[in-house]
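EI: anyone free to look at a 247-residue chain?
SC: sure, send it
EI:
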Amino acid sequence: MKKERLDKIVASSMGVSRSEAGKLVRSGAVTLAGAALRNPSLRLDAQAAALACGARELNAKQHVTLMLHKPAGVLSASRDARAKTVVDLLPPEYARRGLFPAGRLDKDATGLLLLTDDGELAHRVISPKKHVWKTYEVLLAAAPDAAQLDAVQNSITLADGQRCLPAVAVRTPKPNVVLVRIREGKYHQIKRMFAAAGNAVAGLKRTAVGGLALDEGLAPGEYRELGETDIARIFEQPAPLTPESFA
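SC: here you go
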C-alpha cells in the first residue's frame, strides 16, 4: 500500500491545513493504537493505520470523487481570478484536496459534473479512446426537423471542418427539447453540432455520464461523494435513450 506523511493524512481526514495538522501531531493529539505520534513526516499506510485524533478516528481516503449539480454561471475550473468556479462551491475540507473537474461544462450549462483528485480516473472519463457516453437535455431555439436530427446523429462536420463521431438524438414531449448522447468532448460540441445543422442551442443540461445519472435530489450547487459502485457506473453502457427518458 502507498504510504503518506502523517501530517498529510491528518489534514485530509480532518479538513485542516498541513501546518495545522503538523501542530496537532507535535502536540501529541494524534495516536496510533493509543500511542502518541509526534513526527509529522512519519510515513504510514493511511488505509490500514488505526489512527485517531483525540476521540476522533481518522480515515484518510486516497481519492475523493464528487457528483456536483453544476449551476449556470459557474466556471468548470479549479480556480479563476475573475470568476466563481465549481471548486468555490465546496467546503474547505474538499477544496484543500485539490479537486478538479473531470471534463467540463460550459459556463451557462448545468447538470452533472464530476470533481475528483484522482488523475487516472479523470483520464478514463475524458479520454476519447474510452468512449464514455455523456447524456444531455438540449433546449433548442426552434423545434428540430428530421434532417437536423439525422445530421447530428450521422457524423456531422462542424464549421471548422472537424468531423464528429456518430451521436444519439431523441425527441421529447417538448418540441424544442431533445435528448442527445455523445462520446467525445470537443469544445462547445453540442452547440456547434446544432449550429452546423441549422439550429441553435438555448439551454444545455448534462443528465448522465456513462451509466451514472444525476441525482434528482441534488439542487443546483449541491453535491455528494461517490462510492465505488457509483464510480463503476460511469463506465457502464447507459440505457437506450427514448422519449420516456425525459423527466
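EI: The longest helix spans residues 6-14.
SC: 👍
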